[in-house]
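quick one, 400 residues, struct below
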Amino acid sequence: MEPVLATMLLLAVIAFGDVLSIISKAKIPMLLVAIVCAYILVQTEIMPLGIVEASTFTIVGAVLQPPVLVHMGTIIPMDVLKSQYKAVLITLIGLTCSVLFVLIGGSLIFDYGTAVSGAGPLTGGIIATLITSEALKESGFTALASIPVIVLVLQGVLGMPLTSMFLRKHSQRLLKTMDSSYYNAATSAEQLAESAEPEKMLYGKEPSKKRLLIPEKYLESNFIILLLIFIGGAISVWLENITGINYSLFGLAIGIAGALIGFYPQNALEKANGFGIAMLGIIVIVIGAFIKTPWADIVSVLPAAAFIIIIGTTGLLIGGYVGSKIFKWDPYKGMAVVLTALFGFPADYLITKEVSRSIGRNKQEEEAISNETLAPMLIGGFTSVTVGSVVIASILVSTL
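---
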């Protein structure tokens, strides 16, 4: 099969998943649809078994993984992180509890390798899944390599309804305690602008720190930004070869430090117009890791995957509750924020806006609820999916 045809067919499956996600307002995860559809089409021989290899995008995804990790370190501006430090800390408490629950419970019921196979992906997204799957194969745990993918595609099915339920309960409490302070102009003017454009709040702000290394005019070039990102990715791989520590940790650290000192622009790969193609390559790798797995093998690991999702989600909820009590938050709010680890952006944004619209009795109340919940929900998702899960997966796979 011609690479362009194979890529077109895979992209059509992914786009179909995106369409269903948009129509369902993120209730149906795009990745779940894409993987299930691709699996069915390959197993029924409508699409050839070697379609992923024929597309050559596995090579693209493999090359772009280190730069994507560097990019992830540049996503969240430090001033936003500082302003939402309670959301960050509560999320970290939830992630810690979840990982401990999975490692202890999974090791007792199954084995340590099975527990590790799901702990990283459960607390995050695609990158953590790839790190875990690759490490399992390299360590000889080939039979477990499908667990991270199954956990990844199914965790949102449980996480999204739970998040919506807790966020609704918190919003209903807000209605009972609202007073005129929610509606004064000083509160609404700046916050409403941010709530209307969460992507701008998280992505569009340039660091307040003056650029020290790269003049702004050079960072207008896509090719220069790409070169800088690949330099960071190459350094992270080189450091892995020297230290034995997974490159993902170095990539994140390089991205965070680089954005802080002005070596990288905020949200670097997006600014270079390269994030879409990078994610396509990575999604194709995830699809490729799943579609060749025999149905019998998938069924054999489903109990372990289901156990990991249930016990890991329980850990997230307990951690969110405890963290909320420590920082004097409404537990419903804290648990909703922590649960964003199960799906991340844009589902966290869409759920928050949907809840605001459904609970607010008028436009003013809707905006007030959104102002109070949107920023911590977004920060919780990015803390877990973008950073926390990668760190967790990288550390755990090194123990196999």
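Residues 71-267+297-397 form one domain.
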